[in-house]
Design goal:
With 408 residues, the chain is of the alpha/beta class. The protein is built from 15 helices and twelve strands. Helix content is 50%, strand content 16%. Its main location: membrane.
Length: 408
């Protein structure tokens, strides 16, 4: 019965969540039918359950009545002299006893049905879990003093028997450097950012400010690295709560972060629908555009002030002009913060200090953009040559504008 109940509730919840789509496509009937089918399945077992209950009720009552009647006959006729009070007391207890049996049967049954929840909790407990924090994994208080990152022979896979999505990466990023990561779709850029945070299983070592990340507690590691994932997540509440959930900063800091993240360059000060710290955010950021969500995620990362900031396509949904404003404010305001920037749009990262090119999980190029562009057969050069605004990219990589018609 409890196995049949979950699908009913699940289907109902899904239908409510997708109500607008169901109405728009006129799919009410299909949903109604599916819902009725599931209810039927539940009703079958529920009907059975209550019928059995009734079956046992009648049997137990009959047996109980026979037992009390037998006892009464025995007490009245079997033994000679008996006091009325004793007989009354015994009969009363006997009647109580038979209803007690029924009650016990019911309770045992209830326990068994509710045991389903225990089973569920048990299987959740048995899921493989990340290591718990330990005393020895506590990093020293000064850590991280710099955003220095050294990666040695890093390989990663999503499951123990899955394929290696990263293969033997080794590189070093000095504190305060801006490093771009490029590569084709599926080349392992997001996987690299996840493996720096030990979100997937890794081999090899990552040293963050001199300490191997495998030796420190996960909460210490993750609270000292800020990552903006490919799909930013916001919480329902006000914008202020999203930027600063623990109320640690004052409004001036939050406004500064919003400015650096480019919010004020995409909205007018007197616009009616402009976002302020008191704007309400729907759950998951549903009432904002994807670009606005990315800007808020970026502002949140700036407020946190970690030494290592990882942006995974954090500005992919933001127009080019705003993106370059954001990139320049990141460059100018986060001086000693190491930034790792994953981007498909080459303009975003072409003026970075170093560029990592990934291909099928392998590091194929690592160096300053201008250096990499010198290599005629290089991947970065191929990517740049493929793109529409090749000349502007070369110019940006070189750090000076290229005159019209000048060959590279
Ligand atoms: N959750 C996952 N479970 C198993 N394999 C995964 C998972 N996520 C990604 N992969 C695999 O890892 C490889 C690298 O994926 P990754 O997400 O790192 O690519 P990416 O370079 O970030 O691509 P994109 O530019 O599309 O974001 C892919 O081959 C993919 O099949
Ligand atoms: Mg990705």
């Amino acid at each position: 019965m409890s196995n049949a109940r979950a699908p009913v509730l699940g289907h109902f919840g899904a239908a409510i969540a997708g109500l607008t789509s169901i109405r728009a496509y006129g799919a009410e009937d299909a949903f109604k039918e599916e819902s009725l089918n599931r209810i039927d399945r539940y009703t079958k077992s529920a009907r059975m359950f209550y019928n059995l209950n009734r079956w046992i009720c009648i049997r137990i009552d009959l047996i109980g009545a026979a037992f009390s009647a037998g006892l009464a006959a025995y007490l009245v006729y079997g033994r000679g002299i008996q006091e009325a009070s004793n007989i009354g007391f015994s009969l009363n207890m006997a009647v109580g006893f038979s209803s007690m049996i029924l009650w016990w049967v019911r309770v045992l049954n209830e326990v068994e049905v509710s045991g389903n929840s225990l089973e569920r909790i048990d299987s959740y407990i048995k899921i493989e879990q990340e290591p718990k924090p330990t005393e020895g994994g506590q990093p020293p208080a000064y850590w991280p003093a710099s955003g220095d990152l050294r990666v040695e022979n890093l390989s990663a896979r999503y499951s123990t028997d899955g394929p290696k999505v990263l293969q033997d990466l080794s590189f070093q990023i000095k504190s305060g450097e801006r490093v771009g990561i490029v590569g084709r779709t599926g080349s392992g850029k997001s996987s690299l950012t996840l493996s720096l945070l030990r979100c997937i299983s890794t081999e090899g070592s990552v040293y963050y400010d001199g300490i191997p990340t495998s030796a420190i507690n996960l909460d210490a590691l993750r609270s000292n690295v800020t990552i903006i994932p490919q799909i930013p997540e916001l919480l329902s509440g006000t914008l202020r709560q999203n930027l600063d959930p623990f109320d640690q900063h004052d409004d001036a800091v939050l406004y500064d972060a919003l400015r650096s993240a480019g919010l004020f360059s995409v909205q007018d000060e007197f616009e009616e629908a402009r976002l302020t710290l008191d704007s309400a955010i729907a759950s998951g950021g549903g009432n904002l555009s994807v670009g606005q969500r990315q800007i808020l995620a970026l502002a949140r990362a700036i407020v946190r002030g970690s030494k290592l900031l990882i942006l995974d396509e954090a500005t992919s949904a933001i127009d080019y002009k705003t993106d370059s404003a954001i990139q320049s404010s990141l460059r100018n305001e986060l001086h000693n913060v190491t930034q790792i920037i994953v981007a498909h749009r080459l303009q975003t990262i072409i003026d970075a200090d170093k560029i990592i090119v990934l291909d099928a999980g392998k590091l194929v190029e690592f160096g300053s953009p201008w250096e990499l562009l010198q290599n005629e057969k290089g991947m970065l050069r191929a990517l740049v040559d493929e793109s529409g605004d090749k000349d502007a990219l070369y110019a940006a990589a070189h750090g000076k504008p290229v005159a019209e018609g000048e060959s590279l």
